[in-house]
Design a protein that fits this description.
This protein is an all-alpha fold and 153 residues long. It is 92% helix and 0% strand.
Length: 153
């Protein structure tokens, strides 16, 4: 039996894919955090602007100023909705990245298992060969001793 693991190139390729999937997931996680931060910033800006509008209403404001405040809040709401969609897409990408990493890890583990089985098989075969050699040596020694005893008698 060949002592080298014939699937080693495939195992190495699986490990490279695992490493690439790990890096990709890291990038996806950072991207998701960035998009989430932008969403939170927009939401905070909207809350602050809404509070400014309420303060301006209390102190009295003209109809045109009120429309300007409301128009800007609507645009903020649109930006928040768009950013929420970007966050959802980033979240989906992270989940897909996790699935890819999980699959890559499963493949590496499978090749590792096959490699271990191969190594165990090689050890068993080597042990059998060693045992056979020892048995043959012991048999020859016993035959030699029997031959010597037979010559003495």
């Amino acid at each position: 039996m060949d002592k080298t693991f014939s699937l080693q190139p495939l195992r190495k390729l699986a490990q490279q894919k695992n490493d690439a999937a790990t890096k990709k997931l890291g990038l996806l996680n950072r991207n998701q955090q960035s998009t989430q931060s932008k969403l939170e910033m927009l939401q905070q800006y909207r809350r602050d602007y809404q509070a400014k509008m309420q303060e301006a209403e209390k102190s009295g404001m003209g109809l045109q100023d009120l429309r300007n405040f409301q128009s800007f809040i609507y645009r903020l709401d649109d930006a928040i909705a768009q950013q929420s969609a970007v966050v959802a897409q980033a979240r989906d990408s992270v989940q897909q990245g996790r699935n890819e990493l999980s699959e890559a890890q499963r493949r590496v583990k499978s090749f590792d298992t096959l490699s271990q089985r191969h190594a165990e098989t090689v050890k068993k075969l080597e042990a059998k060969v060693e045992q056979r050699l020892q048995d043959e040596h012991s048999g020859r020694r016993a035959a030699y001793k029997n031959a010597e005893l037979g010559e003495e008698n």
